[in-house]
Amino acid sequence: MNRAGVSRTAMVPGAFEHNHFPMPEHMQAAQVIEEATPVDQLRRIFQKNLLLILAVSTIVFLGIAFYTIGQRKLYEATATLQIDPTPPSPLGHDVPAVVTMGADAFWNNQEYYSTQYRIIASRRTALETVRYLGLDRDAGFLKNLSAGQSAPAMKVAPEAAAAIVLSRLKVEPIKDSRLVTLTFEDADPSRARRVLSAVVDVYLQRNVDDNVNSNNSAGEWLRDQLVKLKQDLESSELALHDYKTEKQILSVSLDEQSNMLREEMLRLSQALVDGRTQREHIVSRARASKGRSGKTGNAPHKRVVGELSSQLHSFELDLGESGTCEHSRSGQRGESS
To answer: Is residue 264 located within the same domain as residue 204?
Structure first.
């Protein structure tokens, strides 16, 4: 009870039924909605707004269809390249290159592959492709028009055309291999193939130029080394000539020295035999003269025997000196050979 003395009854469910009063209609509808499941509520909402939902769906579908039809058809040209990490051999395949082994070799190859991927998709490669095909003056390429479409002539900076080339070019390495896939997108399939072929040609030509420059550098180094070696050889030959002149060594080949040594040995042996024969002849004459002088006691015979003895002694001295000299010469030639 409030201060005015009027009592109020709380609105509790079932109060009207307990007091035999009928429930208002709006309260009956609220109680029915509270008892309905969420699925029933969604179905009622869908049935109530069916026309609106169909209209919105139709508009969205038509918009997507018209947008898809209005889009250009894009074509992709694909090429596959094999990248070889083996360094060039300017000195020939017979000369082994210095190759790092172990874990460093793997990471060096990975760095080499990454470098080649960046070279393919570099601005320099794109600029050379633009200059090669004249893409900076190709309106169809710049606006990405289809084969049947035409556009007024236009020209942009080569750098801008190169940026367009790079935006449509994709470089995707194939896992666990040395292969890399190049993809170029364009509205004209023939133009896509032409641009991609130009990109591949520019990349390969750049590798060829690098190898040629490496070979040229190696050739210049070899020419410098050849000049230096020739100078060293000439100085060595002059020094050898001076040494031979100082030591009086004949500048002949080993075979010729051997033949000369053999001939000198034969000549020395023959001279020795002749000397011994002549000695025996003189000794025999001396003995015969001595015998005759002993029998006759003649002074002239004694004088002849004395002369023969002196001749024999001088001959033996000459023979000994000649043999010693020839032996020393032969020894020098043998050492020089």
So the answer is: no
Residue ending a domain, among 198, 221, 244, is 221
**Integer Rg of the chain from CA:** 59
Residues 123, 56, single domain; the answer is no
Kindly report, residue by residue over 319-330, the tens digit of the pLDDT: 555 555 544 554
Residue 182, strand partner residues: 79, 171
Q: Determine the Cα–Cα distance for residues 6 and 27; give it in Å rounded to an integer.
A: 25
Do 279 and 295 fall into the same domain?
Answer: yes
Determine the Cα angle at 217 with ends 213 and 219, to 5°: 115
One domain for residues 282 and 210: no
End-to-end CA distance of the chain: 148
Amino acid 306: pLDDT: 62
Range of the domain at 30: 22-68
Residues in the chain with pLDDT values less than 50: 1-21, 32-33, 98-103, 296-297, 326-327, 330-337
Length of the chain: 337
> Each residue of 248-282: pLDDT tens digit?
765 556 666 677 778 878 887 887 777 778 777 77
| Same domain assignment for residues 185 and 202 | yes
Q: Is residue 233 part of a domain?
A: no
Q: How far is CA 226 from CA 148, 221, 229, 232, 233, in A?
A: 63, 9, 5, 10, 10
Task: Give CA–CA dist 63/56, Å, rounded.
Answer: 11
Residue 10 within a domain: no
Give the burial string for 70-109 (b: 16+ CB within 10 Å, else e).
eeeeebebeeebebeeeeeebeeeeeeeeeeeeeeeeeee
